[in-house]
Amino acid sequence: MPLLDEGYKQLYSDYYQPNSALEHKRNLSADSTVEHIKAVAQGRKWKNLLDVGAGNGSVLAKIGALGLADELYAVEISESGVSTIREHGLPTLKEARVFDGYTIPYPDKFFDLAISIHVLEHVEHERIFLRELARVAKEIVIEVPLEGGLTLAKSIKQTARFGHINHYTVPGFRYLLRTVGIEPVEHMVTTSSADYERHLYGGFKGTIKSAVRRGALKIAPNIAPWVLSYLLTIRCIPSPPPK
Q1: CATH says 6-147+163-192+229-238 is which class?
Q2: Alpha carbons 214 and 57: distance in angstroms, whole number
Q3: pTM of the model
Q4: Where are the domains of the chain?
Q5: pLDDT for 48-69, tens place per residue?
């Protein structure tokens, strides 16, 4: 029995179309995401990098432009996403493939780094997905929204329409990783860019929301993620099996 629900497969099949509002939104989000990846990577570069759930390739395109990896690969459940990635014409892209959402079609430890950006909150079987990331890569970078604090009920109501079925806090997510043998190494809690907030909420409201979010995080970094939505970017390594 396939692990990927047929409804999800149909939803995302034609999800990524060029010159759409979604494409603009993802490009804005990618600007912030790549800065977050660079921060948790602490200036490191990789021989090869796999983007799991690569969407329309916006993050890969920016990684390629910055030369953060010599070779780029992508897997994505959406056929329209894979077509869009190929159309970018990225010079370091070696392969972009449709996959079933769980089984990554590459050998063990084939990649120096696997990234999965704003994917896990949509995944029905999180631990199966995470174990597969750990199988194919020597290092992993994941970014997820932090929506599981005191406003969880509100977050569920607001994000259900975007397909968010999992909601996270920092300690909860770090524990999730450890339950599948993945050890967190470096993480940061941050926000989307002001441009992204303005795209979502309009100029004035977006600017205010961005300022409040950033101010709260600066003043009370341990409390703010429990009362407002943020982003968690985390670099981790698969733990060796016990002897």
Answers
A1: alpha beta
A2: 28
A3: 0.91
A4: 6-147+163-192+229-238
A5: 999 999 999 999 999 999 999 9
